[in-house]
Design brief:
The longest helix has 15 residues. The chain is an alpha/beta fold. The protein contains ten helices and six strands. Strand 4, helix 4 and strand 5 form a beta-alpha-beta unit. Helices cover 53% and strands 14% of the residues. Helix 4 packs across helix 6, helix 7 packs across helix 10 and helix 9 packs across helix 10. The chain starts with a strand and ends with a helix.
Length: 200
């Protein structure tokens, strides 16, 4: 029996996925969570074989959950099911130890097959996305990504500095580096481009 935790912030989709997976004889959805922090608590409580998660969620994103699982050395394997067909997301997911990356518009039967494959030690990656993932490298480092994400949400250099424990000057330096690496004119353009590429 494959025991899994499902993390999806859209209630209707979460219910539909849970119902779909419940039809499989060898899959048991032991918990479902509406945000990343709730999913983390369920992972610790249930120690499932798999986590099936979206990328964008309140609290912790699916990528942050995968990184936390990796950092804590948990045995739970991660499968991301998302609408984001962006090579940058896939690259970051693979770096975080994710074993499955599927798109929500894939046929339903592919999901159960992918979960079985990952549970057995394999990988399940959308093939077209896998090709694209290696065509363009993410130029941002993790700190530039954090600063740019907060700037794109409208926070000032001072607010970002306070949130990340940096000086405002250091924040401005990170923003300047990110803008330069992305070849754009300002922080808003940098944020938009990085989001479009899946680097944030």
């Amino acid at each position: 029996m494959i025991r899994l935790v499902l993390a999806e912030d859209q209630a209707m989709l979460r219910g539909a996925l849970a119902a779909l997976l419940a039809l499989e004889d060898d899959i048991d959805v032991v918990a479902a969570a509406a945000d990343g922090e709730a999913a983390w608590r369920e992972l610790q409580r249930t120690a499932p074989d798999l986590l099936v998660t979206d990328i964008e969620m309140p609290g912790l994103t699916g990528l942050e959950l995968a990184q936390r699982i990796q950092r804590h050395g948990l045995a739970t394997k991660v499968v991301i099911v998302t609408t984001f067909a962006r090579a940058g997301y896939l690259r970051r997911a693979l770096d975080a130890g994710v074993q499955g990356y599927l798109l929500k518009d894939a046929p339903a039967e592919q999901l159960a097959a992918a979960l079985r494959s990952v549970h057995a030690g394999g990988r399940a990656i959308d093939p077209q996305l896998a090709l694209e993932a290696w065509s363009e490298a993410d130029p941002l480092n993790e700190r530039e990504r954090q600063v740019l994400r907060l700037a794109g949400e409208g926070q000032s250099a001072g607010a970002i500095a306070a949130a990340l424990g940096l000086s405002p000057g250091t924040v401005r330096n990170y923003l300047s580096e990110a803008i330069g690496k992305l070849g754009v004119g300002n922080r808003i353009e940098a944020y938009r481009l990085a989001r479009q590429k899946g680097w944030l």
